[in-house]
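pinned: reference chain
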Amino acid sequence: MIDKVGENSKMELFVNFIFNVIGYLALAYLFAMFIWIVMSFVGGRDSAFGEFIGSIVEPYLSIFRNIIPPIGMIDLSPLIAIFLFNMARQGLNLIHAWVLSLL
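pinned: its structure tokens
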């Protein structure tokens, strides 16, 4: 019986570790999107750092740019992209809680 409890706690630690790593990577991606959006206002997208951030976030943001047209000079697609990305992060938290309830 004691071994079973130890195995469950090890499995919970493993599940927590995996979901935490995914969550922190998603948070880092969210910060990269914010940095990219701020760089569009202040400049710097042509620097090496800007090109690196752009190569990471543009594939995701371009999906929304192809669907949502700009309104005048304002591009709302990054706002929608960040909103949906946050919803996916919250869904990940729900899946994490569900997996833990199964253990």
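why pinned: The radius of gyration is 19 Å. The chain has one domain: 2-102.
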